[in-house]
Amino acid sequence: MDSIVVDIGGTNLRCGIFAKGQLQQVSRTKVNNFINASSAEPRALYQSFMDQLASALSPYLRDYPDYPLALSFPGPISPQGVVYSAPTLWGNHLQNIPFLEDCSALLGRRVLLMNDISAAVWRYVESQQDAFCIFTISSGVGNKIFRQGNVLLGELGQGGELGHHRVEYGDRALPCDCGGKGHLGAMASGRGLVQLAKHLAGEQGSSFARSYLGNLVQHNPAAITSEYLVIALKQDDPFCREVLVSSQQYLVQVMSSLYHAMGLQRFIFIGGFVAALGDIYLSSLRQLLVQESWFGLTVEDMSRVCELGALDDDHSLIGLGRYMEAHHG
């Protein structure tokens, strides 16, 4: 079934058409979020976002009046379409929003609403017997597990929120967008890596001062961005390598738990930060993994447990389209 597909992220709002198995006519807009609209009251922020969504979708709804509409959203969603929270989009300011109901009323069309990582999963499903965990490393950290033909979720839509699992309790327990501290997303997302780099720049002033990154930002840690981190990592900057390894060590802890609890041996990594680094990110992660000892796996096995997804940001859009084809065709 051809459809209008929308991926709402913490940074970008993307719309497109999925027709005959292909993604087409993609548009992108910087989303109104709690960072770039920090002065807005919570309800005003929400209204601003909804106005932006309606504006972005207007040409698609006009030109494709018979196409169903599928949206992916960066946060946990109840079976009734209530968004419990959306830290990367709204910080900790808005919870329990009847988003599906609001979207249907605003857009005048029946809407399929799905968590963004649940949507991305369907891009990579090849058979109902597949078993894998997908991680996205972008504004935050999200994950979902696919097993025995389904994305594994609780009865109320819980699950796949390892970005809010606490992995650090010491001085490096950096703040998460949700208001917590030391969460995986605060340590290993694109935003988290920026936080961690700033923290380590303070801890290791001389190393930072000598680094490629330090020169890029004129030795001002406050000026560090994810874009500068990517540039410096591509120059094999030792300081930035340490930031990346420190971040990925938290991921490896979580992956180990998933393997030992569920037997998962396939982990797919996607997201803007991963796409920007590509094999640099994967190679660093594999070097950490082969130093691990997961019960029952050889070193060769360990080198194969992680892989990159496609190096684009179309995962949720394509996943939504394929889901609509498979389940609503």
UniProtKB/TrEMBL annotation:
Sorted UniProt keywords: Kinase, Transferase
Pfam family for this entry, one: ROK
Keyword rRNA-binding attributed: no
Species this chain originates from: Cellvibrio japonicus (strain Ueda107) (Pseudomonas fluorescens subsp. cellulosa)
Keyword Kinase applies: yes
Designated name of the protein: Putative glucokinase
Family matches, as InterPro entries: ATPase_NBD (IPR043129), ROK (IPR000600)
Domain of life: Bacteria
Family: Belongs to the ROK (NagC/XylR) family.
UniProt GO molecular function: N-acylmannosamine kinase activity; UDP-N-acetylglucosamine 2-epimerase activity
